[in-house]
């Protein structure tokens, strides 16, 4: 289990965590505001808003695990 989808892509069982591409897009808006003259101390701290659940079925089968259909239905991506 990992908070980063790249671990599931590389063979981990599953990941659940913030979407890294979404975090980068949001960071770009901070950079834009700073370059336009905003003081970094005046910018609000934001929490991640988009989370991803990725399940690797190949790894689950190799471990002899059966993932419930309800959990598979909730996943943003299932690696087969």
Task: Explain what this protein looks like in three dimensions.
The protein is an alpha+beta fold and 80 residues long. 42% of the residues lie in helices and 18% in strands. A three-stranded mixed β-sheet has the order 1-2-3. The chain is elongated. The model has no long low-confidence stretch (mean pLDDT 94).
The overall pLDDT, averaged over residues, is 94
H-E string: HEHEHHE
User: Cα-atom Rg, whole angstroms?
Assistant: 17 Å
Helix content: 40-55%
Total strand count, please? 3
> Separation of termini?
17 Å
Write down the overall geometry.
elongated
Uncertain spans, ≥5 residues at pLDDT below 50?
A: none
List keywords for this structure.
80 residues; alpha+beta; three-stranded mixed β-sheet; 4 helices; 18% strand; elongated
Short précis:
With 80 residues, the chain is of the alpha+beta class. 42% of the residues lie in helices and 18% in strands.
Write the layout of secondary structure elements.
Elements: H1 5-9, E1 14-18, H2 20-35, E2 51-56, H3 57-63, H4 69-74, E3 77-79
Parallel strand pairs: 2-3
Antiparallel strand pairs: 1-2
